Amino acid sequence: MGALASTYREQGRWKEAEKLEVDVMESRKIELGPDHLDTLTSMANLATTYSGQGRLEEAEMIQVQVMETFRTDRRRQRKLEVQVMETRKTKLGPDHPATLTSMASLASTLWNQNRWEEAEKLDAEVMEMRKTKLGPDHPDTLTSMADLACTWKCQGRHDAALALMETCAEAQRRILGPEHPSTLSSASSVEDWRN
């Protein structure tokens, strides 16, 4: 259900995505608990959908809740993410989409902790593996590209970051359309970074 919700979200089918994401989140709260990484991921996905619908206050409330939960025990989160990533590598393979998603999640956590060199290594690895496995124009590949560009920007690698984000924004415009939230976000970054 989560994968289908993600597909709906990528297509801008917000209402359909929202219904599935609420179901997934509630099921995970019951089955895994409110602080489980998968439950929090579901909440973050729902916040993204609310944001895409322009429901910014609701999105912010969920994001704050997720962020506060993550802050309470980042070490536990990172350990869980590493454990999930390693298990997925062993069981599914290093280039399986679920493994790559785990790697991207861990990179995001490292990024949020200002551990940009570690985040960069994972971001680059995920992007290259997604290019190979899914193709250079797949939405997940483009997300990885944007993530790596943001990491480079935080490292002060302005020119490289801008060039990669421009490439990403152009591909998103072509693949997802000019009004897709990911396209708009990348285009906004390009504009901000040029100034």
UniProtKB/TrEMBL annotation:
Domain of life: Eukaryota
Pfam family, any one: TPR_12
Gene3D superfamilies reported for this sequence: Tetratricopeptide repeat domain (1.25.40.10)
PANTHER family linked to this entry: AAA+ ATPASE DOMAIN-CONTAINING PROTEIN-RELATED, ATP/GTP-BINDING PROTEIN-RELATED
Record-given protein name: Kinesin light chain
Organism: Cylindrodendrum hubeiense
